[in-house]
Amino acid sequence: MSDALLASQRQMQALLMDEAPGDPAGLLDAASQRGLAVYRHAYRARLVEALRDNYPVLAQVMGDEDFDALAAAYIKARPSRFASIRWYGVGLADFMASEAEVAHPAFIDVARMDWALRGVFDAADDEALAIESLQQLAPEAWPTLRLQPRASACCLPLDWAIEPAWAVLAGHAQRREAGEAQDDPELPAPEPLAHRLLAWRPQLETRWRSLEPGEGALVEAVFEGADWTRLGEIAVAQWGEAEAPARLVACLQQWVQEGWLRARA
């Protein structure tokens, strides 16, 4: 690419992303400036559409006016740097937490959950761990065994119990898309609750569930690369020496059945 062409492209990009009307550099005639205004509007509208697509439940819970205002502020503060618009909005939750005014802090967790589930849905496929693989493991290999999550799994820390409202809104959106006209649903009020959410995609459908503290600590450790010995220590700390072995094995059996652990190499 020539230097002249690159400079021209950068000038055009600056004009499209500049919210100020007109042509400060004096590069365009009046007709071109009117055309540029159309492109500016279309560019921002497409970014808002991308944010709405990536954060469908957040858009519902906030309402059109507030979500559009948030989107406009985000677009101004964080211009798109991605070749694919799919990834635009990756920093929206952090933006809401640090720079934007939101009506309720639970909205930040809704944004985190929206983005996490979209990432789980888009993640690459890999093979799930089979129970037979563990049954064939030699006893001396268990202490250093490291369970690994699949690419389509995540462990998300949340500060609010947003899952009940999220489920209601997600179900409402599906019924609306199916043509079943309904009034806006009644939403349970979120309560402050520091906890972890497990999300995964065993096949084609994304799933999630909230984790109670003991299992949540174990799942987080799996994602951090802890070995079986360390998981046993965490289980003892959570449930005591008497209950820990049975609880840990029960968790492992459930994880394998759910299909979010990756097959051993």
Give a structural overview.
Helices cover 54% and strands 8% of the residues. The protein is globular and about 65 Å long. The protein contains eleven helices and three strands. Strand 2 (192-200) and strand 3 form a beta hairpin. The mean pLDDT is 87. The chain has two domains: 20-103, no CATH class; 122-265, no CATH class. Helix 3 packs antiparallel against helix 6 (106-122) and helix 10 (228-239) packs across helix 11. By secondary structure, the protein is mainly alpha-helical. GO terms for molecular function: DNA binding. InterPro entries: DUF2063, DUF2063_N_sf.
Summarize the structure.
Pfam families: DUF2063. Keywords: DNA-binding. The two termini are about 45 Å apart.
Inertia-based shape: globular
How widely separated are the two ends? Answer: 44 Å
Biggest sheet layout? 3 strands, antiparallel
Helix/strand-derived class?
mainly alpha
**Helix-strand string:** HHHHHHHEHEEHHH
Q: Whole-number average pLDDT?
A: 87
Low-confidence segments, given as residue ranges, are none
Strand order of the main beta sheet, please? 1-2-3
The radius of gyration over CA amounts to 24 Å
Question: What's the number of helices?
Answer: 11
Number of strands: 3
Helix content: 40-55%
Per DSSP, what share of the residues sits in E-state strands of 2 or more residues?
A: 5-15%
Number of domains: 2
GO molecular function: DNA binding
Organism: Roseateles flavus
Protein name: DNA-binding domain-containing protein
Pfam families: DUF2063
